[in-house]
Design a protein that fits this description.
By secondary structure, the chain is of the alpha/beta class. Helices cover 42% and strands 16% of the residues.
């Protein structure tokens, strides 16, 4: 057995210790106990860089009409990532996604399957509030999808949840319908890595169409089942 010590002065009686047939190797080099990949510091730097890229975007009607950038919320070490459409009025005011009425419903949906919101990571397709809360235009969805893909790659989730047709279109294209694609596990490939993805309705849509909540509940149960299968802590 080999034990490492930083300083010889830490050993008061080396001869006595060596008599126990243990070989001690002394080193002044610090022991590296952090071997996470990617390291937390690297992830923070990458997120900061991405945030600055979006903050400095040019010729963007969304940015020109919004009060501030709404980047993300939650735990950037989470294995679960939720993507919505874009900020509303309250999100624009507070600088956080899903804090309005849709956010309140989202919190209830998560609680229903024993997920704490602060344990997951949340962002949107576009990071600035669209004028009059309109849906982002196809050109805007396409432009911001490049940033979104970078965002996903940095967070590197085991489960990706796309809420609403805008989130679906940004990553899977506009030729599919959410009513047919929701509730089925899909594979999304970014930078040669596959992400397990679930498409479901946006909470704002459910506030307008309460009869669709039963489908979202079915999706939530599938998500909870997969979380348990993958032994993800939430």
């Amino acid at each position: 057995m080999t034990l490492n010590f930083k300083n010889q002065n830490d050993i008061l009686n080396l001869e006595k210790l060596n008599s126990n047939e243990i070989e001690y190797i002394f080193s002044d080099k610090p022991i590296n106990r952090l071997k996470t990949k990617p390291q937390l510091e690297d992830k923070i730097k990458l997120l900061s860089k991405l945030r600055n890229e979006i903050k400095n975007i040019d010729n963007c009607e969304l940015k020109n009409n919004a009060k501030q950038l709404v980047f993300a919320d939650g735990n950037n070490q989470s294995k679960i990532m939720i993507i919505g459409e874009g900020p509303g009025q309250k999100e624009d005011e507070q600088g956080k996604p899903f804090v309005g009425d849709a956010g309140i419903l989202l919190n209830k949906m998560l609680e229903a399957i024993q997920i704490k919101r602060n344990n997951i990571y949340i962002t949107n397709v576009v990071n600035y509030r669209p004028p009059n809360n309109r849906k982002p235009e196809p050109s805007e969805i396409n432009r911001y999808s490049n940033y979104l893909r970078q965002h996903i790659a940095i967070i590197d989730p085991k489960i990706l949840i796309l809420m609403g047709s805008t989130a679906m279109e940004s990553l899977f294209g506009s030729k599919i319908k959410i009513s047919k694609e929701r509730g089925v596990w899909k594979e999304l490939i970014i930078h040669n890595k596959t992400y397990l993805t679930m498409i479901t309705f946006h909470p704002a849509y459910l506030l307008r169409q309460a009869d669709q909540k039963k489908y979202s509940w079915a999706d939530l149960k599938l998500i909870r089942k997969k979380i348990d299968e993958l032994k993800i802590s939430v």
